[in-house]
Amino acid sequence: MDTLTIEALIAEGNEILEGIKHVPSSPNVFRTFSVYQLADESVYERWKNIVIRFLSTNYPDDISSSDLRKAAEEFEMKYYSPTSMKKMLGILEAFKAIPTPITSIGEKTNTPSIVINNSNSQSQEQSQNIDFLIKSIEDAFTISQLKELRLIVNEENGNLEKAKPKLMAKIKSFGSNLASNIVANILTNPVIWSSIS
Hints:
Elements: H1 6-18, E1 21-23, E2 35-37, H2 41-58, H3 63-77, H4 82-97, H5 122-140, H6 143-155, H7 160-173, H8 176-187, H9 190-196
Antiparallel strand pairs: 1-2
């Protein structure tokens, strides 16, 4: 990046976006979410921090600066999802299209304003809950049983609704206690229990 401009930041962000690759799950892993990989994580980290500093310097109180930080957090929490990267690039495009700082909706001045940040750890908790659920499932089934379940889903071309009756029948064939043990393990997790009680 020769000259630090919004256009250069967008161009480098697009290069990072193009380098994002989907990471398929291994044969022994049943994943309910997508995982992506960056071509070079250090390039992204450098770009992200330069973007944040650029916006903090040139648009110190702009309402969209915090939106970019949230999108960056989401990008990292969602295993480098291209959708979140596109959100960051969209925010930069908005700064390029309308460079006048906006400190609150409808106000285009640099007058001091009070900004209240209300952060939410819901996505982190959801990620932890999903990780726990995946771990519970992996602990309950053998590798060969998970392969059989994956085969059923693959036979239905990934359509989980069509595969559901066959999956239920297959799980029952593994033993009547298996399904109840999985549900009991999930329900007795303190994080899950506190969320439903």
